[in-house]
Every structure is written in structure tokens, then in C-alpha cells.
Amino acid sequence: MDGWGPIKGFSSVGGAAAAEPRGMISVKNDNGVYKVYFGTPAKLYEISTANYAYNDVTRAVGGDYSLADDEYWSFALFGSILVATAIGSTVPQFIDVNTGTQFAALTNASFEARHVAAVGDFLVFGAVDTGDGLNERLLKWSGVNDATSWTIQERGSDEQEIPAGGKIQGILPQYRDALLIQERRISGMQFDSSAGTVFRFQTLVPDRGAFAPRSIVSIAPNDFIYLTEDGFYRGLESRPIGAERVDKFFFNTALSSQWDRVSAQRDPFNKIVWFRFKTGVSSNEVMGYDYQLDRWCYAPGLDALLLSSVATPGYDVDSTAAVVTQYNVDNSPYGPDSRFWRGGIPAFAGFNSSYEFGFFDGANLQAILETEDRALRYPRRAVTERVAALVGSNDWSVAISGIETQGATPSFGAYVAKETAHPFASTQVSGRLHRFRIKIPAGSTWDNAVGLSIYHRDGGMW
Q: Quick check: 118 and 144 in contact, CB under 8 A?
């Protein structure tokens, strides 16, 4: 059914981390066990799916890490090896997700890097510091099927400086190939051993790239979303998906000094890419793009600091996991049908501004649905009499704006609640153009809002 649905609020299941989370990944090991890892500026952690404690798995040799304020961890799973990399006085780190209990320095890797991805049979790093300073246009990749092989020209290991296009902002694997996203260019990184080199590079989008590296989100092969200096775009055809209203809203609302730190995460169940951005020094906002329906939504009440997609192992009433035994029907953070309990499939998760881990599967947030200006009897005036909202709830109210000319600033009156004994709210507002707002309170149970039925009468010409 077409329409709009509720946005779930954040509900924590873990305590507060010791410092700001700066990157996160959920993986499934060879034994079918789900593992969740995240990093802070100083440490790496594994989240226990039994009690959601944060277990310190920082390297045993070398001490704490030291990430600068604008650096984040990047993760990639290469076989059973999970690799974590960041610019911050450390070579790339790894842990075996089957047997490992602590991260350690990646064998033979004597460099730092900002980005990492598993591309076919190669582990690829982007924006690399080999000891002579950070080169944000440098790619470096391992030997074939060997994350410990880093000698140039051995087993296919090599490096490539990209001369044009600006900083490397992201690497999107595409089976044996990859898309290389830069500031001002998008290129294909194609596996081709026949030419005497492992990869060859072909410019695919010559004049547009990603302004914010963590805004890049892959949703399907060769289909991805990213933020540039002039708005939001999709795919290799650079289709504008935020043209006019959304782009203007973002650039007018987001803190300009933080535009390049916008982050995004795909919610695979709801088919929405969520963008988190700062509107102040300590305030965050979230808006989402539904890539199936090509629609945008805005979630100003969603407390989100770090977004991720996490699968749980699943729980039932016979489970002895602490997360099950500590909750009952009255204090559970999630409803009985939540993907948190079912497990095995990715759910939208992350950390809130208090550094607490949880899932965005709590109670419904307050919803406000607003129409465009409607010409009910134009050019004559109209007077509204009753409004019925076609929503899956009786708990709603409506506010109406009535203006005289197109382009005038909307002026909404007070909200009027739906009448108890009738399916409508009675409110009289005169104007040539009307705009309607429907408000559904936080915590209300509903599933879909599809439209309005508006009863009105003629208000005359003047």
C-alpha cells in the first residue's frame, strides 16, 4: 500500500561507551555467529550479543590508538579476517572473527590508511600514509588472497596514485571490481591481469564526486547515493535526488562547517538511506531517502550519533542470554515483533548522543504529515468544514493554513483533534489556497497514512 508509515524511535540495549563511537560493523563468521565491533578514538570493542556489554579488544601491543577529531574507523571483512583502519598512529589492525579475542597489527603492513575494502581477491586501502605523509590520492592493495602480502610486484600487490579527481573518498566493491569515489570524479577500478597490471582505471563520472566521504552508501551493484557540494545524487548517471526543496533544506539547516562530515547508513528492511548531519555544535538531525519510492522524510526527534545495520543472533523465551532474562513484557525496549528478537536479518541500529548502543525499533516517534498548497475552489475562496485523515489510528489532529496568493507564507492555526464519535475533525479556515498538517502523537500505534478527505464550502470571490 502506498502512503507514509511511522518512524521508530531509538531504544538502547547497551550502556554508555567510554568515548564517542567512530565506526561500526556487523559480521557473520564461518560458524554462523554474528559479531558486532566498533571503535572509539582510543580503542576497539566487540559488543556481546548475550548482554550487550562492550568488550575491549584493543591490540595488546602498542597501547591505545589516537584518532584525530575528524577521523573514523573503516572496516572490511576479508575471508575470516576483519580489518580496521584509521589515520591515528597505527598500522591497519585485524582480528580473526572465528577465533580472535584481540586486534593486532596487520602482518607486514607498514602504513596507515583511511579507507579499506575487500575487492575480489584483494584487500584495498585508500588515502594512504606510507611514512612520507598522508597521500589522499594513493591506493594500495595486497597480494592475491593474502592480507599479509604487501611487497610491491609480489603476488599482485601494488599501489597507484590517482593523478586527478581529488581525495579518495570511498571504495565500493563490485564483485571483482570496484567503484572509486573521489571528491570530483568517479572511476571504475577493474580487475585486468591480462595487461600486466592487476587493476586498470576508467573514468566513469568526470565532473562529480562525493563531498562527504561517509555519505556514500551502496544499495545495489553500480547503484549508490552520495552528497556533493550542490546536493544529493544517485548512481553513475548522477541523477539528482534532492533537487530544489531537499537540497535547499539541507544546506540551509546543516551546520556549514560540518557538511563534509555528514554520515549515511542504509536501512535494508525499510529501503531507506538515513543521513545524519549536525545543525549545531552538539545537536544532530536525521533525514531519510526511500530509494524504492524515490521519497524523502525528516526525523528531527531521532537521537542518532552513529548509524549502522546490525543482525542479532535471535532470542526466544528459553534463551539464557542476559538480554532475555533481564526483560519482561513491561520493561522490554522492543515490541514482541521486533527484528531484534527474531535475529538473523539486518536491523537499523547504532549509538545515540549518550554513546549508548541500541536499535531504532522503539516506540513510534511523533509524526507530522504536511500537504502542499491545495486550490480547493480557486480562484474563488473556500472554507473548510471537516477533515478526515486516512491514517491507521484514531489518535490524530489537524492544523490548517489558509492563504490568499501563491507564494505567501503559510500560517497554521491550532491543532484540532479528531472527534471521538466521528471520523473527522471540524475546523473552519477560509482562503484561496489551503495547506494541511496532520499530527500523530509519539507512542501511537499506526502503520500507514494515505491521504485526506476534505469537506469544504464556497467562500465567495472576495
A: no
